[in-house]
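Quick one:
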Amino acid sequence: IRCWSNIPFITVPLSRAHGKPFAHRSELKHAKRIVVKLGSAVVTRGDECGLALGRLASIVEQVSMLQNQGREMMIVTSGAVAFGKQRLRHEILLSQSVRQALHSGQSQLKDMAIPVLEARACAAAGQSGLMALYEAMFTQYSICAAQILVTNLDFHDEQKRRNLNGTLHELLRMNIVPIINTNDAVVPPPEPNSDLQGVNVISVKDNDSLAARLAVEMKTDLLIVLSDVEGLFDSPPGSDDAKLIDIFYPGDQQSVTFGTKSRVGMGGMEAKVKAALWALQGGTSVVIANGTHPKISGHVITDIVEGKKVGTFFSEVKPAGPTVEQQAEMARAGGRTLAALQPEQRAEIIYRLADLLTDQREEILLANKKDLEEAENKGRLALPLLKRLSLSTSKLNSLAIGLRQIAASSQDSVGRVIRRTRIAKDLDLEQVTVPIGVLLVIFESRPDCLPQVSALAIASGNGLLLKGGKEAAHSNQILHHLTQEALSIHGVRDAVQLVNTREEVEDLCRLDKLIDLIIPRGSSQLVRNIQKAAKGIPVMGHSEGICHVFVDTDASVEKVTRIIRDSKCEYPAACNALETLLIHRDLLRTPLFDQIIDMLRVEQVKIHAGPKFASYLTFSPSEVKSLRTEYGDLECCIEVVDSVQEAVEHIHKYGSSHTDVIITENEKTAEFFLQHVDSACVFWNASTRFSDGYRFGLGAEVGISTSRIHARGPVGIEGLLTTKWLLRGNNHVVSDFSEHGSMKYLHESLPLPQRNAN
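Output:
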């Protein structure tokens, strides 16, 4: 813990021997010494006269946050010329006498010409003000800043270089943020240009090369170059086909077309890339990003240091496989080819995958054993997650049976006509089913999810990106290999991709131009994180599985204990396991209630008492902390209700709209429960565990959705399809249907074509 001005904060333990730059973005969080270069376009306002104060304040806040974590921050800043220009223009206007202003007339005063200002004078006038502004902003975070002005000679003269190096090290040792800028008031003028509407921007060369030189001299871990573009593009930004380059490697510059430089400043993107590559060669990692975008500028620096996918990251280590963006494009192309296959061909792929699961059983179980041993040795997985991670012969056999069900039911899933309408004579409209596009399925500790989801994607003609947890890496690898082997029989191997790069889930959720639907399979925390991180991509799933069983007064003694035992104990880690048991008040202190409690004790289920239940007991179990808890283990809550109506109200208040059950012999009470409980699955005298795609006859499921749009409950093939409209006409135009036109709308419903009986 460190303290400044009596404000404590946690420091990040950072230590790294300088030498090689970081190979991956995820390693940037270990950067201790960081240079942030602020381009002219970042620091100055849009009118190029004066500073963008809000943006600058946000940058200072981020730098202060990182400094207070124990990092050593340095800033290379532009802006002195622009700030000085603003001050000098103001002084010139004020210095004109009132008589001159009146003599010239109001109309001429408005159009009064401001003389072209000499850049060195602007820099001299602006440097003190710029530094005063930085000092005032950093003071708000109890951080001291110091100004250092440099010229070319400071790097060419050995003694001056040593002095500069020593000064910077001493400032960093004292927890001071150095603010470095070129001494534009004394350096020789460059070639004339019109960057600042008549003001020549004077620089050693440009601040990009200054920042790179400084970063290497000071052996910094990371150089962040902020400009007014998102990063490096494969063609000029703004062109139709321009794509942001996530990672740039030395040697790739030959394939890049550079656009014009920014509206202000001496550098352009080409200068930034050259400077970045020079710094990279010197052992410093580099990221070029946008520091002006209002939606991201408030956290762009901290996002980069956290390893998020922002801007262009320069790396010397080129991955062996494709990037995740390339994988998504491959999945889309493969998915479109897959959708164009005949239904029998898609079914043949799934049948082949089902056969491989049983034929290659030993290899799969051997890979799974490695995952289990590693997880147990590291002790990082709770018992419920270990159970989900484990595969067995019976699980593989069940998987194969489920896949064959999918294959059998997928014959007419894609391209099925669900509506036909005759709009007018010779003008027929059809609504047909089509794949959604590219699915991203993120799952943890469940390798059996991979073949299930792959089969459903194949059956529905969707491209698929899979991101599994590292705890199941060996299992996922062999299962994906078998999936691609099955896809190869019809040349669509690329339709299913397994993401093996160090891609963060949050970064995957930002690929809104490449991914059409995200399906999370895992803990409620995982689902919530993905729902929060997804930007513009719909998420299908449920964040919690808080399932209820309500035991009514008319419940059968024989059914109650069987259904409760199965719902809670058969697989307590499942999302469709019982979490809250609701007991009708009239059943308290009856033999049936005693049987329920005895059965739970025998099964070693830990009981938590709800508030009302606890009030009836002299010595109650531990009172529940929340009635909205998913235990995922041999634990459950018991609460008392006075009626079926109260049970429904309790479920609506504390449930997650997943699966809820009533046990009763009273049909009227049961129907009331079935009609009024607003959950994805509502059962009468049946275990909550039936809420499953395989048990519903869907073959498998990509998940259980509790949303109210598109798909709800266990989601099989139908939930992975959308529709498109096909209109077949014969020289039809809308004007023919106007008031004086020759045609009339018919809007007749037409019979649907016969579905394949097989």
